[in-house]
Amino acid sequence: MSLPDLSQLVQINQISEYAEGMPVLIICYSTTNGRSITSVPHIIEIATKFPTLYTLVLSQENEAHVKQIVENSTTLQKLNVSISTDNMVATILQSLAVETTPHAFLYSTEQKLVWHGEIADSQCMQYIATIAE
Fold first, then answer.
1. Which domain holds residue 60?
2. Residue 1 lies in a domain
3. How many CB atoms lie within 10 A of CB 37?
4. The pLDDT of residue 133 is above 80
């Protein structure tokens, strides 16, 4: 599976820019899911530890809702947050039979999926370390 077209996303909060050739970590996220909410400090830790990794929190939720959540969340303001208006999140999750969020997808510098799973999984950090350092 190749990296989705990030230019098709609506940016809600941008702290860094994606440049072609960067490894990418996309976290499919829901603002109403407790596990998503509690994962934010860990996502910030990853984004801080691996500045060459483009880290993106991606939601399928309503733009106005996500904007309001980000405006009221000092932690989410520390992350790239976008929404997909074209079912990108659902397509990614369904293509790999993933039923829950948050779910992380790690893409290599060649824009190929190299790992997906729970953001808190130790394998996530191992894979990131191999491609983002």
1. 6-132
2. no
3. 17
4. no
Is 93 part of a structural domain of the chain? Answer: yes
Nearest to 105 by CA among 97, 114, 94: 114
Query: Which residues are registered as beta bridge partners of 58?
Result: 28, 82
Torsion angle in degrees (nearest 10) through CA of 98, 100, 25, 51: -160
Is 43 among the domain residues?
yes
79 neighbors 11 (Cβ within 8 angstroms) = no
Q: Has residue 35 been placed in a domain? A: yes
Q: What is the CATH number of the domain that holds 21?
A: 3.40.30.10
Q: What is the pLDDT of residues 3-18, one digit of tens each?
A: 888 999 999 999 999 9
Question: Which amino acid is located at 104 in the chain?
Answer: A
Number of domains in the chain: 1
- Neighbouring-strand partners of residue 115: 106
pLDDT tens-place string over residues 113-127: 999 999 988 899 999
**Which amino acid, 101?**
T
Nearest CA-CA partner of 60 in 120, 8, 118, 128: 8
